Amino acid sequence: MENIPIRYIHEGPKEPNLSGSFSVRDIQNLLLEKDMVQELHRHDFYYILVLKKGNGYHEIDFKQYEVRNHTIFLMRPGQVWKNRSN
């Protein structure tokens, strides 16, 4: 199996009134008007992706899931995933 890169969270501003290392980020600011297309990778953290609007597919542990409006994806550390837009 190929070497799958691991993504890490870089320290950023702490959220007020949240405990531990919990962080909330607006993905629109991260994408800068680009489509959310990423190659196969893993995270070293829990990841909750909440989408108000979207289309395409996420592949989590090599199983494909459709992205639609009002979709939530939950991923644990080490899961393999990639995403692509239609």
Tell me what you see in this structure.
The strands form two sheets. A five-stranded mixed β-sheet has the order 1-2-7-4-5, with no helix packed on it. Strands 3-6 form a two-stranded antiparallel sheet. The protein starts with 5 loop residues before the first strand and ends with a strand. The protein is mainly beta and 86 residues long. It has a domain of 52 residues: Jelly Rolls (Sandwich). The chain contains one helix and seven strands, in the order E-H-E-E-E-E-E-E. Helix 1 links the parallel strand 1 and strand 2. InterPro entries: AraC-bd.
Structural class: mainly beta
Order the strands across the largest sheet as they lie in space. 1-2-7-4-5
Residue-averaged pLDDT? 77
* Total beta-strand segments: 7
Task: Report the C-alpha radius of gyration, rounded.
Answer: 14 Å
Q: Specify the oligomeric state.
A: single chain
CATH superfamily of the domain at 35-86: Jelly Rolls
User: What is the rounded distance between the termini?
Assistant: 27 Å
Share in helix: under 10%
What series of H and E elements makes up the topology?
A: EHEEEEEE
Instruction: From the 3D structure, determine the CATH topology of the domain at 35-86.
Output: Jelly Rolls
CATH class of the domain at 35-86: Mainly Beta
- Largest sheet descriptor: 5 strands, mixed
Strand content: 35-45%
Globally, the shape reads globular
CATH architectural group of the domain at 35-86: Sandwich
Number of helices: 1
Uncertain runs with pLDDT below 50, 5 residues or more?
A: none
